[in-house]
Amino acid sequence: MHPHPMRKNTTAAELAKKLGVNIKTVYKYTALPRAEYEANAISRAKPWESLGMSRATWYRRGKPTTPKPPESVELLAEHLQTTTCTTSTPTRWPGNTP
User: Fold this and answer.
1) 16, exposed or middle or buried, with CB in 10 Å at 0-12, 13-18, 19+?
2) How far apart are CA 4 and CA 33, in angstroms?
3) Does this model's pTM top 0.70?
4) How many Cα atoms within 13 Å fall on the side-chain side of residue 29?
5) Share of the chain above pLDDT 90, in %
6) Which residues have C-beta within 8 Å of that of residue 26, sequence separation ≥ 6?
7) How open is the CA angle 90-94-98, to the nearest 5 degrees?
8) How far apart are CA 19 and CA 28, in angstroms?
9) CA-CA distance, 5 to 30, in Å (whole number)?
10) 76 and 83 in contact (C-beta within 8 Å)?
């Protein structure tokens, strides 16, 4: 989002003091029109929906642009790439007795 051209890096209180006006007057003249604000709002685009996650999860993960697999999936993939299975499948699993 771009800073408002009238305010630049000045707070509303500083601008009001400098111009000798009430702070509400500064807010009135420096506010973005609602239509322009909503057109640039992130919540309008809803990028979390295209990633298949909730809004809260999207913010928790730091506003990602690509989906991040869960850590457990990454660890499993790494384990499968580094190890090879040399044992056969057991005929009986623990706790599964005939």
Assistant:
1) middle
2) 11
3) no
4) 12
5) 13
6) 7, 12, 15, 16, 19
7) 85
8) 14
9) 8
10) no
For residue 24, the model assigns a pLDDT of: 93
* Tens-place pLDDT, residues 12-43: 899 899 999 999 998 888 888 888 888 888 87
For 47-90, the pLDDT digits (tens) are 888 888 899 998 998 888 776 666 666 777 777 777 666 666 65
Query: What six digits make up the tokens of 27?
Result: 């807010």
Contact 23, 13 (CB under 8 A): yes
CA distances from 22 to 7, 32, 36, 91 (A): 15, 18, 25, 82
Q: How far apart are CA 69 and CA 52, in angstroms?
A: 12
CA gap 9, 7 in Å, rounded: 6
As given in the structure block, the two tokens for residue 87 are 């044992």
d(C-alpha 77, C-alpha 71), whole Å: 10
Domain range summary for the chain, segments of one domain joined by +: 1-40, 48-82
